[in-house]
Batch of 4 targets.
Target 1
Amino acid sequence: MDNKLKVGVVGATGMVGQRFVTLLAEHPWFDLVSVSASERSAGKTYAEAVEGRWAMPTTVPGPAGTLTVQNAADADQICAQVDFIFCAVDMPKDKTRELEERYARKETPVVSNNSAHRWTPDVPMLIPEINAGHLEVIAGQRRRLGTRSGFIAVKPNCSIQSYVPALHALREFGPQKVFVCTYQAISGAGKTFKDWPEMVDNVIPYIGGEEEKSEKEPLKVWGSLKGGEIVPAKAPAITSQCIRVSASDGHLAAVFAGFDKKPPKERILELWQSYRGRPQELELPSAPQPFLKYFEEDNRPQTRLDRDFEKGMGVTLGRLREDLLLDWRFVCLSHNTLRGAAGGAVLMAELLKAEGYLKAK
């Protein structure tokens, strides 16, 4: 298509960057024209730069493999080639914030997988099916940055992608208390079993920073717009445990939830089955149809069997039953590098384009 937007991936050689490259290989709206990484990789072809570290189940896409890797710090050169960028760099937060704002101020929108701007009040942090309305804050962000078209939008941490949609579908009943225990795959750390053999036949009951993200980020997703900023919601109160498990991909969550008004089981299942967000309404290319799927079987969802539901963009649910301490408990599963990372960011970019925020320069 001649009207495709030109996109670059900044941080293209890491695991999430690789996932971006595979998702963009045949995308109907976006044309990958630029890949960039650290100075160490600059000057190589993309195929050369990822040789020996390619972690995707498919081979390097042919056209992407021939692109010359650019230095991610060379924003002027990259911005001259693209309409917007996906950012998946592995840098300290302060350096990431500086880099992303540099691109945005050069009138190049940034769709970020990084955590650096998740708590910037005028930066939308989207799960596209849940808080698409937060895109309105971009107008205020542009005023702060002094830009006409440049801005930053981010996706939340992968650990919240499975259980927040399930709870959001039940918001009419006022969820107030949530306990969640996540069982997170090693790809969430950018690892494979080949380069992290210690994880084979192992469980580690700690993932640095994940529990705070799991407890706080949903409140911004559920926040309200006020004075050109996003004000986080005050409820529900969430407490979490985040555990690294011996799975290649897929984050599973065990959820215990208490509500202002306890919903009937039949109504919960009905709301999960019928839930549709803005991406489904717009029929965006990456939007899962359906978004949520409930399994009646006692042993589902399973990470290996169900993480690829709707090409890894859907969320699967199961084991809904009453709880002795709160109201209900259930299990959720999402693919962490698809829905939780690159795929979620691509869906966000599709929403941004459909709503008029991404345009050709």
Target 2
Amino acid sequence: MPLLNLNADLGESFGAWEMGRDAELLASIDSANIACGFHAGDPLVMRRTLQRAKAAGVGVGAHVSFPDLQGFGRRPMTIPPAELEAIVLYQLAALDGMARTEGLAMGHVKPHGALSNMACTDAALARTVAGAIKAFDPALILLAPALSELARAGCAAGLPVVEEIFADRAYLDDGSLAPRSRPDAMIHGAEASLAHVVAMLDEQALISVSGARLPTAIGSICVHGDGPDAVRTARFLRAELLARGARLAPLAAG
């Protein structure tokens, strides 16, 4: 197998409200996408997550979002390009500054929720996101869903792009994620997630719920950190992929 990466979304707690089992997940992943305060997270959560990632030897990146704490960043929004660019830049600056104080380098960016979903199909929105990342630091890796407009926009902007697949989400025939409103949107359990991932890696293709094959490069595998099976799934995936000869490393190592 080629060099691969396991990533998860972390730092999504907020104040007294806890989300996910970050400390346990960090033992099984290579890269952490850390919330920057717009869909989840706060300054203290961000800093503690960075400290834990450093101790675990895990690469860190910004998980940027629409400004939507109440909706966890999952509600579609229409924001003028100049304002959205500023929103993305603000989040990048926040995490980058926090990382520097902990002796870490922010290595990648991964859009979250509705921002990601919309940028995957809206080329103009994708260009705005990619342009903001490039303006901040053209060396940042864009972690983008495979076969998306977001990935294409990142390549066109000259950013290093790593295309990811999702261990715990199902795909439609056009390569988009099955909406969470569908009963088959989620892949439940570590064993089912492994079978889903291995099938796509073997074929180097997205495999939809109807069996369609969409050829793509695969550089990273995401386990959603807020899922009830996240810790066991990440641990199981790591062990099984290594047993199959995969090489796993932080994104910057690729």
Target 3
Amino acid sequence: MRAIITGAAGGIGKAIALRMHQEAGTRGEKSQLLLVDIAREPLDKLVDELKNHGCDARAFVGDLSDPEVPAQIVAAAKDTFGGLDALISNAGIIARGDLLEMTVEQFDRTIDINTRATWLLGKAAFPLLQASKGSIVAVGSISGEQATPSLGAYSASKAALIMLVKQMSIDWGPQGVRANCVSPGSTHTAMTDARYSDPKLRADAEARNPARIVGQPEHQAAAIAFLASPDAVYINGVNLVVDGGMSNNLMVASALGDPWKK
């Protein structure tokens, strides 16, 4: 499995890299991963960790808000691995703030990284993925389907990403390139650590989730690795929500009481 994984230095991206290496071994394949992030030190540590487990892992440090970088990433994968089987577009940022307070620069950077980068990566990678009958998996968010207080630009960027992936699926599917999206719900990463490391806040989050847990990066990685794998050959253009059922809570939230309590 030759793959690009963006936003790979930690959290969901790191979990994806470890999972994809593990699954490649299970299928008897060699794992060749180009790991992309803007943070060099944790990225280099992950590369070393994967190499110690037999993975041909390489690091690429770059800022995906730069429109020249996606093509450079794909070129590096081609030069290093000779081709590409999967593109995992996981990198993303959150710009918090009311839409009235947000600057053009904040809004544009959110769109550039969360949405445009996936298009540019996919566009650059298309010939390689076409040759391998490979796939694209983008990481969205339940905020892409549910408006979220103080995350106006983020929600808009993820909604656009979900539709972009659907468009890719019909534009590029006939040429043999699948495109799918995974939309995580609440997941304990470095970005959310301040919340979920607090016992009370974590307990509150668990109580509001039908599955009664807070997601872990490994839960998202399992879904992403599956969609990137040959096992998902007939899955194209889906947005797989991995949130323990949280996004189905509209009627629960608007009603009195808790229907799960006995």
Target 4
Amino acid sequence: MRLHAVLDFIDRQGWLDRLGERLQRELVRAFAAGGPQGRRVRDLLHGTWLGHPLHPALTDVPLGAWTAALVLDLLGGLTGRPTFGRGADTAVALGLAGALGAAATGLTDWQHLAARPRRVGLLHGLLNVGATGLYGLSLLLRRRAARATGCRVAILGYATAVVAAYLGGELVYRERVGVSHVAGQVPPREFVPVLPTVELYEERPRRVQAGGMAVLLVRRGDRFYALAETCSHLGGPLAEGRLEGNSVICPWHGSRFALADGRVLEGPAVFPQPCLETRIRDGWIEVRAAER
């Protein structure tokens, strides 16, 4: 069966939607119950503080450790030296520890997905749970002097993890989960008029076009702010969001950005919003790329 046929099969699995909806509700409820502390934990797991999603970095730990264990098991089998076996056991244990962090960050990111990305992400997570369980069993067998069986179970766990990793790549490269949704948008280098000043009202964000780029305009007294209008998280329309002080909150998932410089004040977003420079000329608001 070709890989695209596998993905088509996933799309037909209604039980993934039903399970995903229930699990997402519980995750959202759990973080909300924590109040401000829950939001801080959520942003920590998202990687908001890092300026980059934390989950991809942590997934390298179990995959790298289990790859090392596979190699060491092969070397141990070829040479008969117990040193390789002990190294493999340590690598399996390290991978299990890393899998916990990868699972926590992955679930936190996944709670905001819908439709096909949610289905693929849920199956990705379930396969990783299965791989982790197999490696846990492998470690137990190794410690009970059933190394040969433990090694075979580890190979099955590694194959499961590879399939899960493929689905993770599908989420990133096809569904654009975990990447900036404003990365390809280029603001004009020179000032361009976008809106008469009399048409921009206080407390009413406005979406305009500047050289093919969607721009959010906000007026605060005599100050005018301009940011990329597409939320960097999952592409939400910031012009439909609400203002809170000198920040704007995405209507889709609640990411909050500073109007002055586009930095992330609250996740789930991890990438800042591109900020544009503004000026008033002949009764028009003009914008251009901000000077760095």
